[in-house]
Amino acid sequence: MPCASGDEVADFAYTGFHGSNVSLNGIAAITPDGLLVLTDTSKQKIGRAFYPAPLRFKNSSNGNAISFSTTFIFAIVPDNPDLGGHGIAFVISPSKELHGALPSQHLGLFNASSNGNSSSHVVAVELDTIFNSEFGDINDNHVGIDINSLRSNKSSPAAYFTSNGIKNISLISGKPIQIWIEYNGEDMQLRVTLAPALRSLHIIYWDGALRPMVRPSHSISCAFLHFQREVLSEEEDQIRGVTRGLGA
Ligand SMILES: [Ca+2]
Fold first, then answer.
1. What pLDDT is attached to residue 244?
2. How far is it, in rounded angstroms, from Cα 41 to Cα 214?
3. Model pTM?
4. Which of 25, 35, 161, 210 could form a disulfide with 218 if both were Cys (CB 3.0 to 4.6 A apart)?
5. Taking residues 226-230, what's their average pLDDT?
6. What is the span of the domain harbouring residue 72?
7. How far is the CA of 192 from the centre of ligand 1 (A)?
């Protein structure tokens, strides 16, 4: 999960997780060769990994929420090739614990009372692989921008742009996919872009040098997000991480 962010938020990158300082909870683990594995084939479990210290998302001089960007490569390798768990989410939250959050369709982010509650101060980018009508899912293979709710503020079928047009991408193919998540504090747009990763995860970590992928020129999903009003808690500091909820 290489990460980078701008302005006053610290820049950081992980080219492997062996011996790293990420905070794990649930069944998340790090393999001997440095891969972060959020879940295994267990059912109804949650795995999470967070950056260990809170990050400040508010410009101390003018009070505005600052721009940031992050990119990481992930793969969802289902036990059954045709049916994965419920998905993965990149999350920014005031807490590393997300107390009471449920697995499965709740993605380890919310429960019945915290879902849709503006006091949750949670924003997530979900990579959702199971259709749930109760959350208004558009299909079983989509990207969603979630603001305090699993009912996405904006969602798009998982796809990427090429010079020959838009191409669908299966989130549960087991193949590595790169994601870019970028927030522009001036126009208040959160943009999500996907593309197949060109090299395998193991090669990336073994040679220790992650060369940037060519980011598609168009984003697959984009949502207006008044980060300061809708997401930042009074403490102003938030923590970022990834979480995964497994279902039956
Ligand atoms: Ca879902």
1. 65
2. 32
3. 0.86
4. 161
5. 73
6. 3-245
7. 18
